[in-house]
Amino acid sequence: MQPVEIIVCVECGGRAHLLYVPDPESPFVEGDYAAYRCEECMDRFDLEVTAEDVADEERGAPEF
Ligand SMILES: [Zn+2]
Fold this sequence. Notes:
This protein is mainly beta. The protein has one domain (6-54). It has strands spanning 6-8, 15-18, 33-38, 44-48. The chain has a four-stranded antiparallel sheet with strand order 1-2-3-4, with no helix packed on it. The chain is globular and about 45 Å long. It starts with 5 loop residues before the first strand and ends in a 16-residue tail after the last strand. The chain binds zinc ion.
């Protein structure tokens, strides 16, 4: 999976860019952190990759 490359900075409303792109051979998985840095205030954010970001087949499993 691939986290979004640009998010809205919670501090100033500027654009925060993904600091690095994951290796195609070791993509992000749930629980990893994607690092962003804001171009306006230079603040850094680490966002946890959630289940909503991973493949759809990971979701909707029936409960037994
Ligand atoms: Zn900012």
